[in-house]
Amino acid sequence: xxxxxxxxxxxxxxxxxxxxxxxxxxxxxxxxxxxxxxxxxxxxxxxxxxxxxxxxxxxxxxxxxxxxxxxxxxxxxxxxxxxxxxxxxxxxxxxxxxxxxxxxxxxxxxxxxxxxxxxxxxxxxxxxxxxxxxxxxxxxxxxxxxxxxxxxxxxxxxxxxxxxxxxxxxxxxxxxxxxxxxxxxxxxxxxxxxxxxxxxxxxxxxxxxxxxxxxxxxxxxxxxxxxxxxxxxxxxxxxxxxxxxxxxxxxxxxxxxxxxxxxxxxxxxxxxxxxxxxxxxxxxxxxxxxxxxxxxxxxxxxxxxxxxxxxxxxxxxxxxxxxxxxxxxxxxxxxxxxxxxxxxxxxxxxxxxxxxxxxxxxxxxxxxxxxxxxxx
Length: 376
Ligand SMILES: [Mg+2]
Description:
CATH superfamily of the largest domain: Enolase-like C-terminal domain
Strand order of the largest sheet: 4-5-6-7-8-9-10-11
CATH architecture of the largest domain: Alpha-Beta Barrel
Low-confidence stretches: none
Structural class: alpha/beta
Largest sheet: 8 strands, parallel, barrel
CATH topology of the largest domain: TIM Barrel
Distance between the termini: 22 Å
Oligomer: single chain
Strand content: 15-25%
Shape: globular
Number of domains: 2
Radius of gyration: 21 Å
Bound molecules: magnesium ion
Number of strands: 15
């Protein structure tokens, strides 16, 4: 079997959603979603396609390393494209062998993937509005909710650019999270994202204030570039610190894992280098009994790829559902699967060969990014 063409298309979702289609001389095709963003499919077509033409698509890992080993392909935007190509290679290989992709990753530990819904924030930054937003997520069936706390008390900042938190900010943030906990009760999990903007001291103050609310994790309390700083925050609070969405490949996670600088890894399958690389990162973390969570901002195609990884990873904790993306009304119509992908607030793994889903071409064509064709 040989690759005869690599095509791409891009849709206007809540982000720019990018898709790769790989075609073979035997008529089998593979579909993958690259990490969202501009310029990604151009990289796939200009830099990756020439490396793939004529190759056997079932040599997924050797092809991955061939793509990554080219020095010009190591930027984050190239890894975004490589993630889409690698996923398409797995989809194609699964179809060729008649098995779901999770079988090729070692088999599944679970059929359903626990989700946290990233709800963002309330209509306003008041305890009442945050509680209302929490009740919306619970009403939609989700058992875990994530709120973004940075920016929720900007009117109380002493300085617009430093990394500190005023006492008044801390008090307001605490009240917002308290309102969420009171609204949802103890049966629902809560996580809080800080987007990496605080100092070590401010992050520790915030974490300690939030400890009474039994968060499942506090995400990116400090910037993720400094493992020692992350480790200091982790050591100072009982809340597990979750980080990793901007780290790439095993190399990017090595020090974080070795130093056990966080409580939970947050790996973006489409962004970090693809499905097998994410599985390998999870396995490295498991050496330290560290849980694996899947960061996810893709459409249902990329989310399905992440779900196959989550199914095949022993130390899975939870996967992200970009709940705020429900502003894209056609999101779940974009893919066709034998059974609904979301059932009871969980992601149900498809069992058909490959990823187990197909793009709905009519829906995709109706939402093409201006200037782009459907796998033209
Ligand atoms: Mg985040």
